[in-house]
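Chain particulars:
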Amino acid sequence: MPSSHSDLFGAEALSPLNGSPLVLVDAAQVESVLPQGAICIAVDRAGLLPSLDPARFDALVTICPAAPAPWVSIAPTRLDGQLASVRASVASAPVAAALLARTVRMGAGIDFEAALELESLAYSTLLGGGEFQHWLATAARPKSGPQEALPVTYARIDDHVTLTLSSPGNRNAMTAEMRDALFEALANVLEDPSRPSLDLRGAGPCFSTGGDLAEFGIARDVARAHVIRTQRSCARLLHRLGNRATARLHGACIGSGIEVAAAAAHRVGAPDLIVQLPELRMGLIPGAGGTVSIGRAVGRHRLLWLALGGFRMGAHQALDWGLIHEIAA
């Protein structure tokens, strides 16, 4: 956190190694110096939207309805409950929360692909961390659903390609097999000299529920996992496709199920769209590009609030925040 004042011992007091790094600041009484190294959230309980420098904060929340970015508008009756959810989430995974805030903050100032590299390094670090290991040891994880022989299908009409995530029996969970199939299909579209346009869709009742929980923790070499994650980044290829790519989202878009799709230049959501980033409760951060793709779409402050609380977002809020560009059945 930029500051004209250095207090190294004070910063250690808010280290995630000493407890929660979260600091809630009254937006009406912001001090000239904020704690270094903390996750600083400004809370506007009066709904007056005081003039603050957003660069000094990781998130800004207010009871003012329809507040402009980077503020997050919360109904007065829900404010304390959501703040309590964030406190509990950060307290249960303080190291992951601190790395999430730093990754989001640093990634906003560098180019897209460099930010993907930064995110992956942080994610691999947390794969070897105690918070994720605790989740692995205690979480009740469902088994994988049925896998399709072709997890991603390819169809072309003239100069338009449609790629479809095609494992609806497994809720289009982003298994390693599906990720690799999607990466190869995206690479073919990207390198096609005829430069076709692209639609990315999901078969069945939802676009994708994100990473397959049954595969979490199977990577024993986290350094190698980082190399694979960055070399086979579907978000990177979608971003490189630029205006040629459209993601058509419906139903649940959870974790990597929204992180990858958010890298498409055009994003259309169905009325039943539900977005969520649940990684922090696992002792992790978004690792499929979400700190970059979603951060570029909605801004780093709103992204961090969404990820800290694991809050769900519907189609109309996604449209208002810029995560999608239109709602269509």
User: Anything to note?
Assistant: The chain has twelve helices and 13 strands. Residues 8-92 form one domain. The CA atoms of residues 131 and 283 lie 5 Å apart.
